[in-house]
Amino acid sequence: MLISETNGRGSGSGYSRLFGDEKWGRLFSMVHATVIRNGTELETMILSRANKVDDVDEFVRKVNDNEITDGTHVVSKEKIKKSKKFFLGSNPDFTVFVVRGRECTVIELKDGDTFDTKKAGGERTTLEQAAHAISQALPFSVRIAISSFNASTRDEIVKGMKGKFSEEEVLTGREFCELIGVNYDEIITEREKYSPANKQFFKEQFLELIQ
Q1: Minimal CA–CA distance to 143: which of 118, 168, 160?
Q2: pTM, 2 dp
Q3: Most Cβ neighbours (<10 Å): which of 15, 155, 175, 193?
Q4: pLDDT grade, residue 115 (50/70/90)?
Q5: How far apart are CA 18 and CA 102, in angstroms?
Q6: Where are the domains of the chain?
Q7: CATH code for 51-181?
Q8: CA-CA distance, 112 to 99, in Å (whole number)?
Q9: Cα–Cα–Cα angle for 46, 52, 53, nearest 5°?
């Protein structure tokens, strides 16, 4: 994701107030917006590589009728919202069904790794509600998980989530990708290819500002 392709706010932005200058505000607003867009792009990159479920209700029917008996199947937030089988309220980023093991994991995916206590608690409530709803519709064991994509250890995630999740309820990005059969290193490499251009763009814009 390129900073140069992201719109930033000048007038009225918090960064403009912070620096007392609209041009400075726009540059840092562009950086901030790109970080947010990166999170959305990450979900898209994962889904493009996963074994996706397009019609959730039809998938549930086929599983219950033993027409689908194997495979790991990934449901996006957008698809599960359309389901008439699940009334989740708040929808998890990913719902992963491992059919042969009759296992389901509802997952919130994070690009960052540190959250305040209130937000961490809210994430847990959302996931637990989703897990309960799914367990009513399918004879699967359902667990919840937070995945911090860039964390290298589960302990980092537990600390970042202020202890609201145990080590058994978190997944590193690599573990999440292993669960759904996606190449973690390939995604990391693709994301990193934008870094040199972003550094150069920021450097050029910053030098203009301080001249």
Answers
A1: 168
A2: 0.85
A3: 15
A4: low
A5: 52
A6: 8-47+193-210, 51-181
A7: 3.40.1350
A8: 30
A9: 145
